[in-house]
Design goal:
Distance between the termini: 89 Å
Largest sheet: none
Strand content: under 5%
Shape: rod-shaped
Structural class: mainly alpha
Order of helices and strands: H
Radius of gyration: 26 Å
């Protein structure tokens, strides 16, 4: 019977590993999608900040 217990333990470990792998793939996909969707907005915000700084420095007395 010890062989049966060991096989059950191995199957349980295998199931947990499969869930971890699937969860990792899902999280990675979400992270890549979020990066792809957020990047254009972030670039626009940074460009706007840069333009505002350039405008403000142009108004400083020399």
């Amino acid at each position: 019977m010890k062989g049966g217990e060991e096989r059950m333990r191995n199957r349980k470990g295998q199931s947990i590993l499969e869930y971890v792998i699937v969860l990792t793939v899902i999280v990675a996909a979400i992270a890549l999608a979020a990066g792809t969707l957020i990047r254009p907005s972030l670039n626009k915000a940074m460009n706007d900040v840069g333009a505002t700084i350039n405008t403000a420095t142009g108004k400083l007395p020399k």
